[in-house]
Write a structure and sequence with these properties.
Layout (H helix, E strand, L loop, with lengths): L18 E6 L4 E6 L5 H27 L6 H6 L5 H21 L3 H5 L2 E5 L8 H15 L4 H4 L10 H6 L1 E5 L3
Length: 175
């Protein structure tokens, strides 16, 4: 029997690329379970749920601020800029998304499908900085005609460009 400088056996390296760490409370040693990544259509459904929630909240708010003419075809075709409230509301939406990710692990749409955002390397909760990066990395997913979102359907870990940039994955939540 070979001797080791530590009193416990060396724990295997856990890589969330294929597996995420889980702690067995009885043995108190890490064990490895396969990760169930959330695919394109489930994430698209979560997006639709989030979009519906945002629409239900924002349409009455925008009508209260600007009036019904804000949504008129004439105004839209003229390219008229919105007011300061457009900037405030967009900033509030960005902050709300990041706060949901930070404190709930997901937006309401992802929660509805039982999914959460995880650090791609550890399988744990991503840092706030990584979540802010993920939000701004949506630009990289949107710009090439939405290819960064479509990529989720073909990637083996179901990552969009924004996930790859921020080093996150979307997995099914066990809780």
């Amino acid at each position: 029997m070979a001797s080791s400088s530590s009193s416990s056996p060396e724990a295997p390296r856990v890589d969330a690329v294929a597996e995420a760490p889980r702690v067995d409370p009885v043995a108190e040693t890490p064990r490895v379970d396969p990760v169930d990544y959330v695919g394109f259509w489930s994430r698209f459904l979560a997006f639709l749920i989030d979009s519906l929630i945002v629409t239900v909240v924002l349409v009455p708010l925008m009508i209260a601020i600007y009036g019904r003419q804000y949504f008129s075809l004439e105004r839209q075709l003229s390219g008229a800029a919105g007011g300061i409230w457009d900037w405030v509301i967009n900033l509030a939406l960005a902050v709300a998304a990041i706060l949901f990710w930070r404190y709930r692990g997901a937006t309401p749409g992802k929660m509805a499908i039982g999914a959460k955002i995880a650090d791609a390397r550890t399988g744990g909760a991503p840092s706030t900085g990584r979540l802010v990066l993920r939000f701004f990395a949506y630009i990289a997913s949107i710009l090439p005609l939405g290819l960064g979102f479509l990529w989720i359907a073909f990637d083996r870990r179901k990552q969009g460009f924004h996930d790859k940039i921020a080093r996150t994955v979307v997995i099914y939540d066990e809780d």
